[in-house]
Each structure stands twice: as C-alpha cells, then as structure tokens.
From TrEMBL:
InterPro entries: NDUFAF8. It comes from Penicillium subrubescens. It comes from the Eukaryota. GO terms for biological process: mitochondrial respiratory chain complex I assembly. One of its GO terms (cellular component) is mitochondrion. This is IMS import disulfide relay-system CHCH-CHCH-like Cx9C domain-containing protein.
C-alpha cells in the first residue's frame, strides 16, 4: 500500500505553515465579532486561503 497523507495531516501542515495568515484573519474577525458579516475580512481570508492552497 502506498504511503498516503491523511487529510487531517494536510490540514495540520497547512495550519502550521500559515500561522501568520491565520493570526491576521483571526485578529480581523475578533476586532468586531459582535457584527461579523460576509466579506468583513475578505482580504485576510484570501491570504489565508492562498497560503493553504500552496
């Protein structure tokens, strides 16, 4: 059986690699968490998404 990476391992590696982007996104959401709305932190989210996709 070939050596396969489990999906959770991929998520863990991406999370570790993208900690700066994740922190920026989290900080943006927490800045006004009482009135979170769609696309509120789209710039930060897209940076995090791009990092995960790499």
């Amino acid at each position: 059986m070939p050596n396969r990476t489990r999906p959770i391992e991929k998520v863990a590696k991406a999370t570790a690699k993208c900690s700066t982007e994740a922190a920026a996104y989290g900080k943006c959401v927490l800045a006004d968490y009482d009135s979170v709305h769609k696309d509120m932190c789209v710039k930060e989210f897209m940076r995090l998404k791009d990092c995960f996709v790499e």
